[in-house]
Amino acid sequence: MNACRLPGFAYWTYMVNLISHTPGLDPMLPRPFRVARAIRETADVVTLELEAPAGPPLRFDPGQFTMLYVFGVGEVPISISGDARKPERLVHTIRSVGLATEALCMLRKGGVVGVRGPFGSRWPMEQARGGDVVVVAGGIGLPPLRPVIYHILHHRKDYGRVYLLYGARTPSDLLFTEELKRWQHTLSHAPGASPVLVTVDRAEGSWDGAVGMVTSLIPNLRLDPAHTTAMIVGPEVMMRFTIAELRKRGIPEARLYLSVERNMKCAVGFCGRCQLGLQFVCKDGPVFAFSQVRNWMTQKEV
Amino acid sequence: MSKSQFVLERSGLEQLLQALKNEGYVTLGPTVRERAIVFGELHTLEDLPVGLKDWQEGGTYRLEPRADPALFGYNVGPQSPKQFLHPPLLRLLRASKTAQGFEIVSETEPLPKYAFFGLRACELQAIQIQDQVFLGGPYQDSHYKARREQVLILAVNCTQAGNACFCTSMNSGPKARAGFDLALTEVLEGDRHYFVGAVGSGAGARLLNQIAHRPASEREWNQAEALVDQTARNMGRGLNTEGLKELLYQNLDHPRWEEVAGRCLSCGNCTQVCPTCFCTSVEDHTDLTGQIAERTRHWDSCFTADFSYLHGGNVRVSTRARYRQWLTHKLATWQDQFGSLGCVGCGRCITWCPVGIDLTEEVAAMGGVHVQNQP
Ligand SMILES: Cc1cc2nc3c(=O)[nH]c(=O)nc-3n(C[C@H](O)[C@H](O)[C@H](O)COP(=O)(O)OP(=O)(O)OC[C@H]3O[C@@H](n4cnc5c(N)ncnc54)[C@H](O)[C@@H]3O)c2cc1C
Ligand code: SF4
Ligand code: SF4
Ligand code: FES
Questions:
Q1: CB of B277 shorter than 6 A to ligand 3
Q2: What pLDDT digit, counting tens, does each position of B177-215 carry?
Q3: Which residue's CA is minimally distant from atom 4 of ligand 3?
């Protein structure tokens, strides 16, 4: 390598003939995992259950994500959607929206994925203990929150009333429908309560459930606002409206948590792309208390 | 005079360069290429831009002859050590397809050891800032680390300030205070041409022992100090850093962002020449047979269109938002993220901006209104 013979002014695009490399191990190197099961959830969403062929399983906390690499295609951040008490199966639920996610959704049993992680902050499972919990998910926002539901189910007595508000585009986009039915009973705090509230933007087929935004479900919840913790994942506008609605109910700002999405190329603080004001979403987030990001999220184009 | 303060003649400096080469270093220093001073491999002192000076202004860079044979009579060029410690294009991974999936091919070729010959104080500070980014957090960038650990630095104190320089404002220069192995001040006095030096590390002291040198007299030392002091008084620009973070945080909606966006081409030159900007992108490729895949990382910029891309659109669509990201990152959020400013006052972004946008001017413009806003 002759790194010193550079052309004059180094516009980076002029420099593709000069590839540096580094021998040895580093946090950017993925570990190969095998697909143990691929479950088609909906027309464009697949759940992958991964196993480590060698070495220990990947332990994680609810809210964390990994970087999933498909050979020759790309690497993208995906939240872990499985049960933190069963790390031997590393579960991700992926919506096909572009190159890398499409390739991930096409993987079958036996396929290999590179995994880095787990990365990022956790949902406030400890802080939420002893009070009510409102989990709000929009679309592909449900998988990152499923570990929260599993955690609560394992420690049901530690929490008061628990609600899962879930909105999808159409009934056929609903994820985890079997589990949603089960949770209606297992999450319940009292006979007759319905903790799982589902709504769709557009009714289709035999849908006789609610139609409209998840935010419309908030005013009627029975809860003790001062001791309620909310955890929210969905498109940024949906999260803003949800926060406004929860604030109206009197839930303190410090108890509102959300998971933020930003472009990510490294997940370890090197690529700079995930910045949201002074926060790096990859290492300071993706789960934030609203107060940590309020000043930036209320600005346009930060 | 302290034993660690010494004088080298030009011949001693030549010996120093050769000693570094003998120790297996790739000796990188300022050289002239395509009418600019860029880093190149130095074989002899003659490879330096001898007897040249640079003229820098917003959007302007010109090399001119000097009246004397100074070896270091210019300021910083478009490149910085970032070019080598955080390479513009780097292979992160090579993988080969197997029957079961793929496996990672390990890199075995050793890395070159770099000796930087003639780094300025602001560049030392920029290295410290990038150290914080790549080595100071919960994860360490092994690519940066491997290069950084073997680096040897010969610093040169500036004896003239450039028009675009404001290192005194940023507390980074013109005198190198830390982060070097040896530091020199070039003195030209009538017929005399010598270098007054200080030792900054054990490696520096060992090198010095291999070459002809003598202790500095008090007069020589004072002469060198006077030149650097004079440089500090002649900065081309200035930036008031007091309350800077608060100023920018309170002015995210200032009309000046729109105004500067009218001039900014969103070309990203400022981020490429900046010695502290670290942002990158990653690309995946396969060879024609599809058997070997590579991931490469290359410098990116918060001014590019897809930097903030999310499925469905970009977060920062307007030039206003991109310029604001750049400036507030350098001068404000960087402080919260890494505990220091992200700017060392080298002036490169001013000189290499095609339309001469000057961050010191932008901050001053915002400061003006900010003051008026106060009750
Ligand atoms: C912390 C975090 C957790 C996530 N969890 C999930 C999840 O559980 N399930 C799921 O389906 N999706 C999740 N996403 C979104 C997912 O990462 C994007 O859909 C994916 O990056 C799109 O890549 P692509 O190559 O398929 O799309 P393309 O449109 O081809 O994208 C090109 C590149 O842009 C970037 N990019 C595009 N959209 C996004 C995005 N929304 N977020 C981050 N980078 C993006 C990526 O670098 C991607 O490689 C998560 C994102 C983040 C930041
Ligand atoms: S922002 Fe400009 S003056 Fe500051 S370190 Fe970067 S290039 Fe130099
Ligand atoms: S100013 Fe822009 S390119 Fe430079 S480090 Fe900050 S975000 Fe990255
Ligand atoms: S994803 Fe690279 S810095 Fe956060």
A1: yes
A2: 999 999 999 999 989 999 999 999 999 999 999 999 999
A3: B277
Q: Is A266 left (phi over 0), alpha (psi -120 to 50) or beta?
A: alpha
Question: Chain A closest CA to B321's CA: distance in Å?
Answer: 6
3-state secondary structure of A94: strand
Residues of chain B with C-beta less than 8 angstroms from the C-beta of A73: 284
Q: For residue B194, what are the β-bridge partners?
A: B9, B187
B331-342: pLDDT as tens digits: 999 999 999 999
Rounded CA-CA distance B139/B123 in Å is 24
Asked if A3-119 and A125-297 have one fold, the answer is: no
- Mean pLDDT, range B87-116, rounded to an integer: 90
Residue with the larger pLDDT of the pair B329 and A20 = B329
CA distance A112 to chain B (A): 5
- What gap in Å lies between CA A147 and CA A90, rounded to an integer? 12
CATH number, domain A125-297, options 3.30.420.240, 3.40.50.80, 3.30.70.20, 2.60.120.200: 3.40.50.80
Where are the domains positioned within chain A?
3-119, 125-297
Respond yes or no on whether ipTM tops 0.90.
yes
CATH of A3-119, one of 2.40.30.10, 1.10.10.410, 2.60.120.1440, 1.20.140.10: 2.40.30.10
Tens of pLDDT, residue by residue over B113-160, are 999 999 999 999 999 999 999 999 989 999 999 999 999 999 999 999
Q: Domain locations in chain B?
A: 5-86+108-233, 244-281+301-366
Partners of B310 on chain A (C-beta within 8 Å) are: 261-263
Query: Measured in angstroms, how far is the CA atom of residue A182 from the centroid of ligand 1?
Result: 30
Q: Is B330 in the pocket of ligand 2 (CB under 6 A)?
A: yes
Burial class (CB in 10 A: 0-12, 13-18, 19+), B66: middle
